[in-house]
Amino acid sequence: MVKIAPSILSVDFCSLGRDIDRVSSCADWLHVDVMDGLFVPNISVGLPVLKSIRAYTDMFLDVHLMIERPGRYVPAFAEAGADLLSFHLESDTPEALRAALDELDRRGVKKGIVLKPATPAEAALPYLEKGLDLVLIMTVEPGFGGQVFMADQLPKISALKNYVNQHCPSCLVEVDGGVNAETAALCREAGADVLVAGSAVYGAADIPAAIAALRG
Ligand code: DX5
Ligand code: ZN
Per-residue pLDDT tens for 29-51? Predict the structure, then answer.
């Protein structure tokens, strides 16, 4: 069954604990979006917030770094309590990204890579061949919640699912951006294993029902 990862980007940060409680028993993972104002034109939350979330909940923390040269911060995010850390293929050189993935291995933190909409599925191949826990496909331009799902990314989800099956079957395929009950069905059909949803979860009057609708 598909996993659902509500994104805290859509919460009221003055009530973060309450908003975590609202999803903790009906969702699978908690998705934490970290933005630096450079890699994406927005700034969100960082290390102190992740540390507080870690102390507050046992949920699996799926941390999505949208920052330049993420390797600089891998040790700190690992220590702050990420269960899985993913960063963008576009955020540094292949050598630096490889070193950051190796560092996650040494620290026993699950590792993922993220592809912006313009990055082709093939770019993930060298990383899948060496082993990954997650590959994340953006279905909006990263930086903001509440955007419209890019349906032209659906073939890329299927292509990555095929590559995963061939090269790294234990790797999960995650989709992030504009996921709602309707687009979730398309993502599941294309082979997604994990769906991130911010506005479709936190904008809903009945959160458990919204999460059930994303599962299909
Ligand atoms: C966007 C973030 C997403 C965002 C999704 O850059 O990576 O995780 O919170 O928000 P929705 O589900 O509203 O598109
Ligand atoms: Zn995200």
Answer: 999 999 999 999 999 999 999 99
β-bridge partners, 115:
137
Residue 34 burial (CB < 10 Å; 0-12/13-18/19+)?
A: buried
Strand partners, 134: 112, 172
Q: Given ligand 1 and candidates 144, 175, 194, which is best to mutate, with the most ligand atoms within 8 Å of its CB? A: 144
Mutate to test the pocket of ligand 1, among 140, 179, 182, 199 (most ligand atoms within 8 A of CB): 140
pTM for this model (two decimals):
0.98
Give the three-class secondary structure for 195.
strand
Question: How remote is the CA of residue 119 from the centroid of ligand 2, in Å?
Answer: 16
Instruction: Name, in order, each residue with C-beta under 8 angstroms of 87's C-beta and a sequence gap of 6 or more.
Output: 65, 67, 70, 97, 100, 112, 113, 114
List all residues 6 or more positions away from 41 whose beta carbon is below 8 Å from its beta carbon. 143
Q: Where are the beta strands (DSSP E) in the chain?
A: 3-6, 29-35, 60-66, 84-88, 110-115, 134-138, 172-176, 194-197
